[in-house]
DNA sequence: GAATAGCATTGACGTCTATCAACTAAATCG
DNA sequence: CGATTTAGTTGATAGACGTCAATGCTATTC
């Protein structure tokens, strides 16, 4: 993620001259940022963040039927949030008969977590 | 953030009976989640995440005029993203003459960072 | 004082998002 | 088989979001 940026002293530039040097911007960094941003975006909703929190606290798998009554939202909305988390790679799911069990994929959070600290 | 949740064995409930126990949901946790989610939401855009990254790498303060050419976006869009980061408490700004300097408020990321690890 | 550079704000536009009600699909029980 | 339960999907809707062009504001230079 390192972006090479020169810090230059500031003077008002003399009419028509560029303010700053253009900076190269490798694609690797951009993709790295895009991956982490997509994880952060998925966590950027209080309901989803709490869902992840519950799943993390119960190291094992948690049934959707136990997640729904935690929130004052319709079942379909919870299902939607779980889908968002699934598509972000943050959680996985497993079907057992009538019930669906969700769990956290710990690796998914690692990259963002490492960058944050 | 601990939510007390009983994991019970699953059997199809006999018509009209509740599937799961209602669970209490303290406000403190909700507010904690809301704070962290708002930070995550602000980081949930690749441009903003890269802005924060640049500011973190340059431990000091960075001029907006050096941030704008890093991205293929209009100056007003960058200004908008910086405002979002400012309102999330992630960055601060300081005016010096014609120039505005931005910096990361390290404490702002700490709560989310701690939760993630 | 006039012109201009740097940055923020406003307005507009298309897209995405969170939510619910209604419906669908699969599995279970009687 | 038929009724019921669970969970995912679809459609609709109101609001939020990302982006740009245009404008406004303050500080600087001449």
Provide structural commentary.
Two copies of one chain form a homodimer. Chain A is mainly alpha-helical. In chain A, 49% of the residues lie in helices and 12% in strands. Chain A has five helices and three strands; from the N terminus they run ααβααββα. The first copy, chain A, has a three-stranded antiparallel beta sheet with strand order 1-3-2. In chain A, a hairpin with a 2-residue loop joins β2 and β3. In chain A, α1 (27-43) crosses α5 and α2 crosses α4. The first copy, chain A, is elongated, with a radius of gyration of 21 Å. At the A-B interface, α1, α2, β1 and α5 of A face α1, α2, β1 and α5 of B. The structure holds a DNA duplex (30 and 30 nucleotides).
- Determine the structural class of chain A based on helices, strands and strand pairing: mainly alpha
Main β-sheet of chain A: number of strands, strand sense, barrel status?
Answer: 3 strands, antiparallel
Amount of helix of chain A: 40-55%
Provide a count of the helices of chain A: 5
- Cα end-to-end separation of chain A: 14 Å
**Overall radius of gyration of chain A:** 21 Å
Placed side by side, the strands forming the largest sheet of chain A appear as 1-3-2
Please count the beta strands of chain A (DSSP E, at least 2 residues each): 3
Estimate the mean pLDDT confidence of chain A.
Answer: 85
Strand coverage percent of chain A: 5-15%
Uncertain segments of chain A are 1-9
Q: Tell me the series of helices and strands of chain A, N- to C-terminal.
A: HHEHHEEH
Shape of chain A: elongated
Give the largest interface.
Answer: A-B, 55 and 55 residues
Oligomerization = homodimer
């Amino acid at each position: 993620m390192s972006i090479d940026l020169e810090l230059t002293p500031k003077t008002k530039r003399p009419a028509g001259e560029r303010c700053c040097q253009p900076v190269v911007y490798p694609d690797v960094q951009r993709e790295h940022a895009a991956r982490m941003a997509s994880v952060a975006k998925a966590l950027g909703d209080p309901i989803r963040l709490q869902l992840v929190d519950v799943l993390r606290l119960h190291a094992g798998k948690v049934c959707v039927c136990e997640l729904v009554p935690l929130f004052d939202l319709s079942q379909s909305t919870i299902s939607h949030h779980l889908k968002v988390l699934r598509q972000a790679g943050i959680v996985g799911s497993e079907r057992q008969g009538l019930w669906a069990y969700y769990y956290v994929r710990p690796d998914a959070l690692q990259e963002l977590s490492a960058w944050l600290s």
